[in-house]
Amino acid sequence: MDAAMIKEIGEIVVRMLIIFTAVFTGVGYMTLVERRVSAWMQDRLGPNRVGPQGLLQPLADGLKHLMKEDIVPAGAHRMVFVLAPILVLVPAIASFAVIPIAGDAINLQDLGLPWDWQIKPFIADVSVGLLILLGLASLEVYGVVLAGWSSGSKYPAMGALRSTAQMISYELALGLAVLPVVLTTGSLRLQTIAEAQAGTWFGFIPHWNVFIHPFGFLFLLIAIFAETKRLPFDLPEAEPELVGGYHTEYSAMKFVMFYMAEYSTMIANAALMVTLFFGGWQVPGLALSQPWMFLIQVGAFSAKTFFFLFLFVWVRWTLPRFRYDQLMNLGWKVLLELAFINLLVVAMLVAAGVM
Amino acid sequence: MSLDTILASAASIAAIFSALMVIWQRNAVISALFLVLNLGSVAVLFLTLGGEFLAAVQVIVYAGAIMVLFLFVITLLNPAPLKERFASGPVMTGLTFALGVLFVAALMRGIMSLAGAGGVMASVGEEYGSARSIGELLFTAYLYPFELAGVLLMVAMVGAVVLARRQTAGED
């Protein structure tokens, strides 16, 4: 291998390492955040024994699940039963490949490292990045349907049925909610959408899409709560009704994979909201030299994403659950129409040259 | 061999293999899964040809929407796996074989005529296959077929709703 090839592969490996390390750490610690925040809201302590403030709890949980017995039920279709958790986790993780975490590429030499490698702020630069994200989100349904079917038992089957219906219903509204942003930006590339949100109005209001498309953001937020199956839309996993939903029969690492998929979908969707509506990595009025610019932008992106993750947890422990017919009515008879009207209005304004 | 060629070959082999498995599997769920794999491999083929938009649409529409509904219905009905292969006499087998050969011959003829044109990839520009160029084509050169297809789908959808409603009304 010649030097150029080593450099090219090195650049790809480094940016994959950065993003996936961040994602997996985030997934692990989201479980802790969820437990500690819920405890805090309910005036309890939560897990605080393993390490300082319970910070080693995710590691302990991981180890525990690794050592548990991995049971495949007698009535299960073995191959599909093993395949299902993989099919849920892979699209959830893969969606991070197109999300930009900073503005410009950074050279490793700027960080005081000996390699002259340009590290781009995303893994893959796709011209239709937004569509790839939507496509991957729609693929996650497979793992859920198959988990329910292959378990060969009625509660998982009912859970899978509910979640499939729910995910299909809200996917349409989700797509329609993000389209106005595409109309005003004129691109499906996520980095272009993030770059278009630079600058401010009157010097203090950031030029973020949320101020241009407040309704689009609201619809997206609701659709994402349903897509990630979080309260108040967590009917697929409603434990008092369904034991545990589609993953009832799963144990040990396979069960953990469903949880990892759930939390990485949450992080991906939070990052999507930040990129589309909150300027992505943009910090208004900030101009620094590398590497500080890169580091602060990554920090800003992480902070904004964390805010939405906190919102997910906050809402989960605040609101009660919807009834199933209410959920379907909201999705098909309210949200879809409103998102469509919003899209039409924005399209007309763009055509008239106002936006 | 470039990375693209390797990827395209792998995707082609996966597409052919999965297409065969769709027919050979006796379990309807597994068959549907191989069909998803087939659609995915075709999406990868689009990607290697520079059609990022087409690849994304292929995944969203076919793999993400249509096949999910297929699978949804299949798992809901949960049919028992076929005990034996479809019974067929010598006439049916012969007819199937002849039609298959005819189809492959027609396909090969089409591909050969393209290969004679001096390479397909050389003739496309930078914007080829982008969301913008496909959108422009759909709303200018192919406006009428596009709108007609839209009306057709709408009629089919309304028809399906009407049929479903009539049945439940009869049961009440």
Gist of the model:
The complex is a heterodimer of chains A (355) and B (172). Chain A is mostly helical and 355 residues long.
Give a written overview of the molecule.
The complex is a heterodimer of chains A (about 350) and B (about 170). By secondary structure, chain A is mainly alpha-helical. Chain A has one domain (about 5-45, about 60-350). Helix content of chain A is about 65%, strand content about 0%. Chain A has 12 helices and 4 strands. A two-stranded antiparallel sheet of chain A has the order 1-2. In chain A, α8 (about 215-225) packs antiparallel against α12. The longest helix of chain B has 29 residues, at about 145-170. In chain B, α1 runs antiparallel to α2 (about 30-50). Chain B is globular, with a radius of gyration of 21 Å. The relative contact order of chain B is 0.07. With about 170 residues, chain B is mainly alpha-helical. Chain B has a domain at about 1-85: NADH-ubiquinone/plastoquinone oxidoreductase chain 6, subunit NuoJ (Four Helix Bundle (Hemerythrin (Met), subunit A), Up-down Bundle), CATH 1.20.120. The N and C termini of chain B lie far apart (about 65 Å). Chain B is about 75% helix and about 0% strand. The interface of A and B includes residues 139, 146, 148, 157 and 160 of A.
Helices and strands in order:
The complex is a heterodimer of chains A (355) and B (172).
Chain A lengths: L2 H39 L15 H10 L11 H17 L11 E2 L10 E2 L9 H22 L3 H32 L4 H6 L4 E2 L3 E2 L2 H4 L1 H14 L11 H4 L9 H26 L14 H25 L7 H29 L3
Antiparallel strand pairs in A: 1-2, 3-4
Helix pairs in contact in A: 1-10, 1-11, 2-10, 3-4, 3-10, 4-5, 5-8, 5-12, 8-10, 8-12, 10-11
Chain B lengths: L2 H22 L3 H21 L3 H26 L12 H26 L15 H9 L3 H29 L1
Helix pairs in contact in B: 1-2, 2-3
